[in-house]
């Protein structure tokens, strides 16, 4: 399709994109054959979304952790060159190692796509002065501004920039003398939810990086801004009128070999181990022996690396140890790991003198465990023999700034690596060939996007997934399990918006989220949100006298229709109970409730939970329903001093357990229907007759919802 015009699918907008030599070269020279179709489609979709939204627009591009977001935006950059973009700015990473990692890859991959088509500028590179970069940008701008310039001389400038307010300010200053107005400019904000957003919004101020990003955008009026992230919570929760609030969204689907949260934390999770309390205690005593779980994890890692050696085809294998943010803890773990390696290597190399029977048994036990999930592992004797090569080519690296600067890892397929670190190996850090993760740190602030960014063990591991192991503290494991559900729900909403069923700007933010977790850091949230606990309590309309309340008989008729077919059983206390489907329960809630009550956050949480349960169990008649005292007179309820009613009858001397105890704890939901007459307090003046429903989700459910409030 070189040089041809591609007409996008209808839902992608109205722009026409040229698929030319650069993008074609990128697909052929950089992208694996089995991923070319998906990368081609996603790059076209992303750039088309930007062009359709127009200059100055902001697009949110959401991928998964370690799923190939960099490859995606490289494809977009290659396609942008074919479509007349003279300048691309990639804001990559908040640390020099991450910047170096991104720069190296961009130069390599884009160079393979079109070796003469680029002019790279890296302001953080001390070999390039700002003056030199300014002159280079001036040349690029001038060449693109002249229609007579031969195509071969129209290079696209790629500026790779650290996400730091000072560097962004310096680059912006260059555009005072280089005017790109009238030319297409692309800005890619990698890990856009980090550092870019305004952390001073609630104080009416601008944080330094945010303010300078806005200035950069103002200096380039023809630009298109793309936010790339695997954790979009923060960009979705800033004020709609914020300059960085996205105008459109694209969700990237990972390739077939990707293994993410569903695989690690789904129903089959034999790859994930819980770190014992003894291990956690041992980690707090650096002068004692290493934690037993760390020892087991290291044995498994070394056997897995030995398996690779037996194949005769070198491949990088890595282990990640993530104890905490504190550098002292990193040093302790490096010392333990180095000590075990030295002890084992010494015994192994002198096995002709005194054979290390116990050590070999430990390695065999580790091999047995891996063989259970990776049946094609090489025989134990071959893996044991290969440990000689593994020990000699093992690098133990402390990844932090203890020595002044975070080390840059020069990955080699003939080497194995054990990395120990904290924040430096969280977001954006790619660990090549990662098989074993040992993470004894606690959940911390329980911020959802931070939890997800620690999942360096996600990635394209289908071919060797059985050799992978993840050791987590129990609360952190719970948080990952909850995040899987949170991400699934969030991406489903974003897919719906991408399909054009709803505007991103008009979408009312609603996130499935355990009540113990926060979506993102509070400092960037500008949209008013409320965290609703939907479990272990009754949710009912405490103020049923409303202008939009249905007449009692209408509401009763809707309830009878929704519950048609329920097999009712009488209780000793005058109630009728039975079971219905989730679909009927949802119809009951919507058809009998005033719109004003349905709009309240508590009820929104019930609606969302019903929809989620219905997706999971669409045909199950599992919802408990109780008509409370259906054959008696209207239950009279007085309005209290705050205008509400007390719906539930309490316990009494006749032995009645009280309305609140009328539920089935094993059901995903219990519904009560009450027919009440609301009267004025004191005078008993009738205020209205109403059908009031009450809804209870059992304690075992961890469901909670973060819901936007207001209009």
Write up this protein:
This protein has 711 residues and is α/β, with parallel strands linked by helices. It is 37% helix and 19% strand. The protein has 20 helices and 27 strands. The chain has a seven-stranded parallel beta sheet, sandwiched between helices. Strands 20, 21, 22, 23, 24, 25 and 26 form a seven-stranded mixed beta sheet that branches. Strand 25 (670-679) and strand 26 form a beta hairpin. Helix 11 packs across helix 14 (380-392). It is globular. The two termini are 47 Å apart.
Can you lay out the helices and strands and say which pair or pack?
Blueprint: E1 4-6, E2 17-19, H1 21-29, H2 36-53, E3 58-62, H3 69-82, E4 85-91, H4 96-113, E5 118-121, H5 130-145, E6 156-161, H6 165-174, E7 184-190, H7 208-219, E8 223-229, H8 233-237, E9 248-251, E10 258-259, H9 261-265, E11 272-274, H10 277-283, H11 292-311, E12 317-321, H12 327-349, H13 357-373, H14 380-392, E13 394-399, E14 416-421, E15 434-439, H15 448-453, E16 459-460, E17 469-472, H16 474-498, E18 510-512, E19 529-533, E20 537-540, H17 552-562, E21 569-570, E22 576-580, H18 582-592, H19 595-598, H20 601-616, E23 623-627, E24 635-638, E25 670-679, E26 686-697, E27 704-708
Parallel strand pairs: 3-8, 3-9, 4-6, 4-7, 5-6, 7-8, 11-17, 12-14, 12-15, 13-14, 15-17, 23-25, 24-25
Antiparallel strand pairs: 1-2, 10-16, 18-27, 19-27, 20-26, 21-22, 22-23, 25-26
Helix pairs in contact: 1-3, 1-4, 2-3, 3-4, 6-7, 11-13, 11-14, 17-18, 18-20
């Amino acid at each position: 399709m070189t040089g041809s015009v591609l007409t996008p699918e209808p839902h992608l907008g109205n722009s026409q994109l040229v698929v030319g030599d650069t993008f074609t070269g990128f697909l052929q020279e950089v992208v694996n054959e089995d991923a070319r179709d998906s990368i081609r489609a996603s790059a076209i979709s992303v750039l088309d979304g930007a062009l359709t939204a127009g200059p100055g627009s902001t697009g949110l591009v959401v991928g998964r952790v370690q799923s190939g977001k960099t490859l995606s935006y490289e494809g977009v950059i290659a396609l942008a060159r074919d479509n007349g973009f003279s300048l691309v700015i990639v804001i990559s990473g908040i640390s020099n190692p991450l910047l170096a990692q991104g720069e190296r890859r961009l130069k390599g991959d884009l160079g393979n796509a079109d070796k003469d088509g680029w002019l790279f500028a890296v302001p953080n590179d001390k070999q390039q002065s700002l003056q030199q970069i300014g002159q280079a940008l001036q040349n690029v701008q001038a060449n693109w501004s002249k229609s007579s310039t031969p195509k071969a001389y129209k290079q696209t400038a790629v500026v790779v920039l650290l996400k730091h307010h000072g560097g962004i300010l310096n680059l912006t200053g260059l555009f005072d003398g280089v005017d790109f107005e009238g030319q297409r400019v692309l800005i890619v904000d990698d890990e856009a939810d980090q550092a870019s957003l305004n952390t001073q919004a609630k104080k009416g101020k601008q944080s330094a990086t945010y303010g300078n990003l806005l200035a950069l955008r103002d200096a380039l009026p023809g630009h298109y801004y793309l936010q790339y992230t695997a954790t979009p919570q923060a960009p979705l929760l800033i004020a709609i009128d914020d300059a960085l609030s996205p105008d459109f969204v694209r969700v990237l689907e990972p390739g077939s070999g990707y293994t993410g949260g569903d695989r690690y934390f789904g129903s089959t999770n034999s790859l994930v181990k819980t770190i014992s309390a003894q291990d956690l205690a041992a980690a707090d005593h650096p002068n004692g022996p290493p934690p037993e779980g760390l020892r087991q994890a290291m044995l498994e890692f070394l056997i897995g690396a030995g398996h690779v050696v037996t194949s005769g085809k070198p491949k990088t294998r890595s282990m990640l140890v993530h104890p905490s943010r504190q550098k002292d803890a990193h040093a302790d773990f490096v010392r333990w790991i180095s000590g075990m390696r030295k002890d084992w290597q010494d015994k192994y190399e002198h096995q002709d003198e005194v054979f290390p029977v116990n050590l070999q048994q430990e390695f065999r036990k580790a091999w047995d465990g891996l063989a259970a999930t990776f049946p094609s592992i090489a025989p134990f004797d071959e893996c044991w023999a290969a440990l000689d090569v593994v020990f000699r080519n093992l690098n133990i690296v402390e990844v932090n700034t203890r020595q002044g600067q975070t080390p840059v890892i020069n990955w080699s397929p003939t080497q194995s690596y054990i990395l120990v670190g904290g924040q430096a190996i969280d977001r954006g850090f790619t660990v090549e060939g990662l098989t074993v993760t040992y993470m004894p740190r606690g959940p911390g602030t329980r911020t959802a996007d931070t939890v997800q960014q620690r999942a360096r063990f996600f990635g394209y591991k289908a071919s060797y997934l059985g050799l992978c192991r993840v050791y987590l503290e129990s609360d952190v494991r719970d948080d990952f399990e909850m995040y899987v559900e949170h991400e699934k729900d969030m991406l489903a909403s974003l897919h719906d918006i991408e399909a054009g069923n709803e505007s991103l700007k008009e979408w009312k933010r609603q996130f499935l989220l355990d009540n113990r977790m926060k979506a993102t850091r509070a400092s960037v949230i500008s949209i008013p949100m409320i965290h609703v606990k939907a479990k272990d309590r009754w949710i009912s309309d405490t103020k049923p006298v409303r202008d939009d309340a249905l007449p009692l008989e209408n509401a009763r008729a809707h309830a009878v229709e929704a519950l048609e077919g329920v097999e009712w059983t009488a209780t000793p206390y005058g109630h009728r109970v039975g079971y219905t489907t989730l679909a009927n329960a949802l119809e009951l809630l919507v058809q009998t409730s005033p719109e004003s009550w349905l709009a309240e956050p508590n009820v929104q949480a019930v609606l969302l939970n019903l929809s989620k349960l219905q997706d999971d169990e669409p045909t199950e008649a599992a919802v408990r329903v109780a008509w409370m005292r259906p054959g008696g007179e209207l239950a009279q309820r007085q309005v209290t001093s705050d205008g509400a009613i007390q719906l539930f009858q309490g316990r009494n001397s006749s032995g009645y357990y009280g309305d609140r105890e009328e539920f089935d704890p094993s059901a995903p939901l219990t519904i009560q229907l009450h027919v009440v007459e609301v009267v004025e307090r004191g005078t008993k003046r009738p205020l209205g007759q109403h059908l009031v429903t009450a809804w209870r989700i059992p304690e075992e459910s961890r469901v909670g919802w973060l819901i936007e409030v207001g209009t």
